[in-house]
Hints:
The structure is a single chain. By secondary structure, this protein is of the alpha/beta class. It has two domains: about 5-20 and about 90-215, Rossmann fold; about 25-85, DNA polymerase, domain 1. Helices cover about 45% and strands about 10% of the residues. The chain has nine helices and six strands; from the N terminus they run βαααααβαβαβαββα. Strands 3-2-1-4-5-6 form a six-stranded parallel β-sheet, covered by helices on one side. Strand 2, helix 6 (about 115-125) and strand 3 form a beta-alpha-beta unit. Helix 5 runs parallel beside helix 9 (about 205-215). The longest helix is centred in the N-terminal third of the chain and has 17 residues, at about 25-45.
Amino acid sequence: MPRDAFSHVETWVFDLDNTLYPPSARLFDLIEVRMTAWVMAELGVDRAEADRLRVEYWRTHGTTLAGLMREHDVDPAPYLEDVHDISMDSLSPDPALAARITALPGRKVVYTNGCGPYAERVLEARGLSGLFDAIYGVEHADFHPKPDRAAFDRVFARDGLTPARAAMFEDDARNLAEPHAMGMRTVHVAPARLDAAHIEYHTDDLTGFLDRLTA
């Protein structure tokens, strides 16, 4: 992987869940349990229907929250507070990753479809607090979710970054399509490689990938 392919990058944008911690932590499993319970209580449906809606809305609207807002006009604030109220016990500090992120030149940004306070808790548990210049949650995109172009437009405008001089690291391949179209370097962080035109690089080891950029 040529280091010069990233030599122009001034802003490094990282997704949070399953990107800045390994999927083996299974943190999102805990969130999904709370999502299902919230849908059951809010919509008055049984668990099977709540699970079906949770997955359907994620597939068709980008996030379960987006589907709930568009289909049922729910208030996002109570939902975000409730579903992200989970234990961080499965996470541990990662000094090696912290060192590689610190070594990156330019601005470092976290952008998640979760909420900002949740992102801060995850970063603290991973020993990554204080390493990022900005942390953006779905609330900073006016509740538009990745992969919607409107979400990226709002967050990137808020940050003031130039997409052509930025890179995006994401575990959900769908969320790299618009960044690629905007001119960003795209890196799919996931156990399995996916061949797609909007994925320029793949890694199953974020620390190792960053090490090759900064060594």
